[in-house]
TrEMBL record:
<dbReference type="GO" id="GO:0016491">
    <property type="term" value="F:oxidoreductase activity"/>
</dbReference>
<dbReference type="GO" id="GO:0046872">
    <property type="term" value="F:metal ion binding"/>
</dbReference>
<keyword id="KW-0479">Metal-binding</keyword>
<dbReference type="GO" id="GO:0016020">
    <property type="term" value="C:membrane"/>
</dbReference>
<dbReference type="InterPro" id="IPR027467">
    <property type="entry name" value="MopterinOxRdtase_cofactor_BS"/>
</dbReference>
<dbReference type="GO" id="GO:0042128">
    <property type="term" value="P:nitrate assimilation"/>
</dbReference>
<dbReference type="GO" id="GO:0045333">
    <property type="term" value="P:cellular respiration"/>
</dbReference>
<keyword id="KW-0004">4Fe-4S</keyword>
<dbReference type="Pfam" id="PF00384">
    <property type="entry name" value="Molybdopterin"/>
</dbReference>
<keyword id="KW-0534">Nitrate assimilation</keyword>
<keyword id="KW-0411">Iron-sulfur</keyword>
<protein>
    <submittedName>
        <fullName>Molybdopterin-dependent oxidoreductase</fullName>
    </submittedName>
</protein>
<keyword id="KW-0500">Molybdenum</keyword>
<dbReference type="InterPro" id="IPR041957">
    <property type="entry name" value="CT_Nitrate-R-NapA-like"/>
</dbReference>
<dbReference type="GO" id="GO:1990204">
    <property type="term" value="C:oxidoreductase complex"/>
</dbReference>
<dbReference type="InterPro" id="IPR009010">
    <property type="entry name" value="Asp_de-COase-like_dom_sf"/>
</dbReference>
<feature type="domain" description="4Fe-4S Mo/W bis-MGD-type">
    <location>
        <begin position="1"/>
        <end position="57"/>
    </location>
</feature>
Length: 929
């Protein structure tokens, strides 16, 4: 047994992990108690990292050898690394020779390590001579970058996580922190428990789990954040709650802003935002008069056509009240991805250069050219993410290199993205997982190493640099991302007749040392850091040469990195949504995270247990909106925007407001599919979202689209559910996934029996669920193929019923254990009305012998009541809602005492704590206070 300290590859909290490995296999993971980001805690996703790295998952999902397609639409064939990289270098050299450097583009990822990011940036801007290198962080953090630079002068979050312990007021806006940054949320919960006088304001269109901790919830209308922030400043000015001394000494531009916000009266703001005037006054008072106010914000502000304005308007509030530059105070942007910060540091965006330099600045371009030893860095602005795929769709961009990201799931306006991937002459995908939708479009697939196999660094939201360490060897023929880039770059140098090489690197550290030198004298100066120092403990920047430690908080002296040393107020006007709802599209659709899933689920989607909390895709609607449209729970609906349409079940939820709807961002074509009436494949939630973007940050408005929701008349339905051997489950799901396009609606997800996490290795069972609907019964061979994949074909223990005239079919495979009979797999086709009880028999592994022929009788009701499998609340210990409700029936005391009783009896909420907000909500709703 070996233990290796590393960093979690999920969100920007940057938790330290300790990886346990045996030989070449990762067998366990736990939080690093010495890491200052998490002090040993991990969320549901981090706690299951070792399961995503199991031998079975690796064998069935990983890209393990270079693969090449001779022709689009064909299966790729295996090639060796020399052949793969020679082909790539020849193809890129030819495209560059024929169409120029700007005919190629690189779309990379906030999940790469800083060293990977650096060489990609140098490859594009230093060797090829194009600024067409952008990243999925453009979809995540570019508005935060622009907002910080516009007001404070540099892209430097001024706060640290410890500030939650010093805050008198925490203002959470545009962030479901409980789901998106759960370990930081645990720290907020603890700080609130220690200091009950702390005020927490939560501002979001949805009443998410984060609201459970709030003293004040502001349910603003989508897109009205700037209106709200200006309205709060209007009240602060009227009531004399601004800090005039701080404004005079440390800021500029306040008079223009003051004139602007004069029009944002409480009456006007209340009406536009949907918030009472009393709540506006309360929020303004708490924010301005607290001893220290900390703002936490994320994609609700960033993913907007007004993203820069939203960020800047919030920072205005901190500058106007002097709530910055001291413990517990400041505007703290929470990073979405594990190394979006590191990517920003090395200039891994189309408008940036190394060490927070601006591409538009001739002096900055000259500095980088000198550091790299090249004649110049191109001044032509690079294509940002949306622009890059639009250019490829228009035929202007000929070659695309995509690394560690899945734009065929995550980019908005999927019709354009897929047209781009189809039209590009060359698509290279550098990826660890072979199962992402983007891999289907690749001419060349290059296998990359991933978490547990890599060496390098990442930077979290609080500017803390942590080491990522290799615990096990890379599987198969996978290579490190930086190695792939360096090898390709050297081959391209030969073809472009460039010498000497710009890429002399032999280790990640050699890359990092060059990156370190580019930061000398900059705001993020890390010239005092070394790998050796980072081996001892993670460190925050800046950490210049001669320093003994990094800086926890910035701007404590009131001096900002602007020409006059003063922060700048931004007089940004409120601009409505790019696509406001209207009569034809009367719903505001928002997207967001699920608690137990990550991005496109290429990693978390391999684990059935992480689907326990939310097992299938759905669109959430307010119960009144469903009633007005005569929709029942689970009814299929068409959700349609101006760009596309998808079909999925409707689900009633009091989290969303009237005329609003919510779909989780994770549901892409890998899990949710179908085909339109015109034969076009349905591409998940981002078939709906708009590519309209903020003019300042170029970040698209993924958080809002105007949609219509209409009932889908698909009378023929099918449900297939099966327990499968571990070595077959993922392979079966991949084959089932390919069949989703045969139906107007289909979903395919894994599931598990969800044993306690500390017992999972010995008792976990995995299965797959396939759900579909159509206008009429499909040909028999399609249903037979589904039976084959679900293990329902050709076994003596399989029971069958079929009525071709009615298009009905029922197949059940049983397992006999002594006197008991249990269902192992089932398929209901044409009539799924018995789903509730027969699926529960399978999922709960209950004896089924008493049901006899009813297992095959269409529409049959169970003679003995079968309790429907309850919603799972605690993923760590597999605790479901019915068990919690039953315990609470006999539980007295205060809410805190009831929570403690639940934790003691059922263990829920005692491991990662991610389910604690939901437990509190259940306590409040089920047990009178």
């Amino acid at each position: 047994m070996k233990e290796t300290k590393s960093t979690c590859p999920y969100c920007g909290v940057g938790c330290g992990v300790i990886i346990r490995s045996e030989g070449e296999q990762i067998v366990g993971v736990r939080g690093d108690p010495e890491h200052p980001a998490n002090f040993g805690r991990l969320c549901t996703k981090g706690s299951t990292l070792h399961l995503t790295a199991s031998a079975e998952v690796t064998r069935q999902t990983r890209l393990l050898q270079p693969m090449r397609r001779e022709h689009r639409g064909e299966a790729p064939r295996r090639v060796d690394w020399d052949g793969a990289l020679d082909f790539a270098a020849d193809a890129f050299a030819q495209v560059i020779a024929e169409h120029g450097p700007d005919s190629v583009g690189f779309y990379i990822s906030g999940q790469l390590l800083t060293e990977d990011y650096y060489v990609f940036n140098k490859l594009a801007k230093g060797l090829i001579g194009t600024n067409n290198v952008d990243t999925n962080s453009r979809l995540c953090m570019s508005s935060a970058v622009a907002g910080y630079k516009k007001t404070l002068g540099a892209d430097a979050p001024p706060n640290c996580y410890d500030d939650v312990n010093h805050a008198g007021c925490i203002f959470i806006v545009g962030s479901n922190t409980a789901f998106a940054h759960p370990i930081l949320f645990r720290r907020i919960e603890e700080a609130k428990a220690r200091n009950p006088q702390m005020k927490i304001i939560f501002c979001d269109p949805r009443r998410t789990d984060t609201a459970e901790l709030a003293d004040l919830y502001l349910p603003l209308q989508p897109g009205t954040d700037v209106m709200l922030f200006h309205g709060l400043l209007h009240i602060m000015l009227w009531e004399g709650w601004t800090n005039t001394d701080y404004i005079a000494a440390h800021t500029s531009g306040f008079d223009a802003l003051k004139s602007l916000v004069r029009e944002y009266t409480p009456e006007k703001v209340s009406q536009a935002c949907g918030i009472s005037k009393d709540d506006l006054f309360t929020a303004a008072k708490w924010f301005a008069t607290s001893p220290a106010t900390l703002s936490l914000y994320c994609q609700g502000l960033n993913q907007s056509s007004s993203g820069t304005a939203k960020n800047a308007a919030l920072i205005n509030l901190h500058l106007a009240t002097g709530q910055i530059g001291r413990a517990g105070a400041g505007p703290f942007s929470l990073t979405g991805q594990p190394n979006a910060m590191g990517g920003r540091e090395v200039g891994g965006l189309a408008n940036l250069l190394s060490a927070h330099r601006d591409l538009a600045n001739p002096g900055h371009r000259a500095e980088v050219a000198a550091l790299w030893g090249v004649p110049s860095v191109p001044e032509q602005p690079g294509l940002t993410a949306v622009e890059m795929f639009q250019a490829a769709a228009d035929g202007q961009l000929k070659a695309l290199w995509i690394a560690c990201t899945n734009p065929a799931q995550s980019m908005p306006d999927q019709a354009t993205v897929r047209r781009a991937l189809e039209r590009a002459e060359l698509v290279v995908v550098q990826e660890a997982f072979a199962t992402t939708a983007t891999c289907d479009y690749a001419d060349l697939l290059l296998p990359a190493s991933t978490w547990g196999e890599k060496e390098g660094t990442v930077t979290n939201s609080e500017r803390r640099i942590s080491r990522v360490r290799q615990a096990v060897p890379r599987p198969g023929g996978a290579r490190h991302d930086w190695e792939i880039v360096v090898d390709f770059a050297r081959r391209l140098e030969t073809r472009l007749r460039r010498a000497p090489t710009l890429f002399p690197y032999t280790t990640p550290e050699s890359i990092w040392l060059e990156h370190r030198e580019t930061t000398r004298g900059r705001d993020l100066d890390i010239t005092g850091l070394s790998y050796a120092l980072l081996e001892q403990a993670p460190q925050q920047w800046p950490f210049p040469e001669g320093a003994s430690s990094g800086k926890a908080r910035l701007y404590e002296d009131g001096v900002f990195p602007t020409p006059d040393g003063k922060a700048r107020f931004a007089d940004v006007a409120y601009v409505p949504l790019a696509e406001p709802r209207e009569s034809r599209y009367p719903f505001s659709l928002t997207t967001g995270r699920l608690r137990d899933q990550w991005h496109g689920m290429s990693r978390t989607g391999t684990l059935g247990r992480l689907f326990g909390h939310v097992p299938e895709p759905a669109v959430q609607m307010h119960p009144q909106d469903m009633a007005r449209r005569s929709l029942q729970e689970g009814d299929l609906v068409h959700v349609t925007s101006k760009r596309g349409s998808i079909v999925l079940p409707a689900q009633a939820s009091n989290e969303v407001g009237l005329s609003q709807a919510f779909i989780a961002m994770h549901w892409g074509a890998e899990f949710l599919g179908g085909v339109s009436s015109t034969g076009e494949p349905l591409a998940g939630v981002n078939a709906l979202t708009t590519s309209a973007y903020c003019p300042g940050s170029k970040q698209p408005e993924l958080k809002h689209a105007a949609v219509k929701i209409l009932k889908a008349e698909l009378p023929w339905t099918l449900l297939g559910v099966a327990w499968l051997p571990a070595q077959d489950a993922q392979a079966a799901r991949e084959q089932l996934k390919s069949m989703m396009a045969l139906f107007p609606f289909a979903a395919c997800v894994p599931f598990s029996n969800n044993p306690p996490l500390d017992q999972a290795a010995n008792s976990e069972r995995n299965g797959v669920l396939f759900r579909a609907a159509a206008y009429e019964a499909p040909p028999d061979e399609i249903v037979q193929q589904l039976e084959q994949l679900l293990g329902l074909a050709g076994t003596v223990d399989t029971l069958r019923y079929a009525d071709r005239r009615k298009g009905q079919r029922r197949t059940v495979r049983v397992r006999r254990e002594g006197a008991d009979t249990r269902i192992e797999a089932l398929l209901l086709a044409g009539d799924t009305s018995a789903e509730a009880w027969i699926k529960s028999l399978l999922l709960q592994e209950l004896p089924a012998q008493a049901y006899g022929r009813l297992l095959l009788a269409p529409g049959a009701k169970a003679p003995v009541a079968v309790q429907k499998k309850g919603k799972q609340v605690c993923s760590c210990f597999g605790v479901e809602a019915p068990a919690i409700e039953q315990h609470l029936e006999g539980c007295g005391g205060s809410p805190d005492e009831r929570l403690a009783s639940l934790q003691k009896a059922l263990r829920c909420g005692t491991n990662c704590g991610s389910c604690v907000p939901e437990l509190k909500r259940m306590i409040r709703s089920l047990v009178p206070a």
